């Protein structure tokens, strides 16, 4: 059983790695566990806005690399995960709350009220849907990186890629928006420490 100190050490040890051992592989069961852990993060109304497009074959990683400004880590890592956000997450509400209703965990009254709240928030409000997709999928992305580190793998979040080309190349439905790429694998060589702002520089007490 991991202790709180172990969890904190994982958080501190995580760093963005851009050079990977291209021969290293991640067993499917380990990758699945990493992604499953990522699904445990919270989300607005429990709508679970994240979807994971896993790119593992050499051919598809090379295709993704050209879309990601030829960044080597995209193809040299064991896998690169495209984290997507759901722009129509309100449709998931019926699945999530429907299961709770079926199990007797909520009443029909609660079910109708929750569905109504979600639908009203999403109705004709693309900016809200986009903000929610980015926010909640971002939580899952961070969890992927922490879970990977806990299992001995390194990662790098990547925002520098052509989203339109990615959607076209990988036939991503209009419902989903690319949030970021995350390379996952075994680092090659050492990682240079990055400079961090002090706590005083990033913390505001009570008010500006």
Automatic annotation (TrEMBL):
Keywords: Oxidoreductase
Superkingdom of origin organism: Bacteria
Domain Nitroreductase: 12-186
InterPro entries hit by this protein: Nitroreductase, Nitroreductase-like
Entry-linked SUPFAM superfamilies: FMN-dependent nitroreductase-like (SSF55469)
Sample GO molecular function, one term: oxidoreductase activity
Record flagged with keyword Oxidoreductase: yes
PANTHER family: NAD(P)H NITROREDUCTASE YDGI-RELATED, NAD(P)H NITROREDUCTASE YODC-RELATED
Family to which this protein belongs: Belongs to the nitroreductase family.
Name of protein: Nitroreductase family protein
């Amino acid at each position: 059983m991991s202790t709180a100190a172990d969890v904190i050490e994982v958080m501190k040890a995580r760093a963005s790695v851009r050079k990977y051992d291209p021969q290293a592989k991640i067993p499917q069961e380990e990758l699945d566990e990493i992604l499953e852990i990522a699904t445990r993060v919270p989300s607005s109304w429990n709508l679970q806005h994240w979807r994971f497009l896993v790119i593992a074959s050499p051919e598809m990683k090379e295709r993704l690399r050209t879309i990601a400004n030829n960044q080597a880590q995209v193809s040299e890592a064991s896998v690169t995960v495209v984290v997507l956000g759901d722009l129509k997450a309100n449709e998931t509400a019926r699945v999530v709350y429907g299961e709770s209703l079926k199990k007797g965990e909520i009443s029909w009254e609660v079910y109708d009220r929750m569905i109504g709240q979600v639908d009203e928030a999403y109705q004709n409000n693309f900016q809200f849907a986009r903000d929610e997709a980015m926010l909640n999928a971002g939580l899952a992305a961070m969890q992927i990186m922490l879970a990977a580190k806990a299992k001995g793998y390194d990662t790098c979040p990547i925002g520098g890629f052509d989203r339109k080309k990615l959607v076209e190349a990988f036939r991503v439905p209009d419902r989903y928006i690319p949030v970021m790429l995350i390379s996952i694998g075994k680092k090659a060589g050492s990682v240079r420490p990055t400079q961090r702002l002090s706590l005083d520089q990033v913390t505001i007490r009570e008010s500006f």
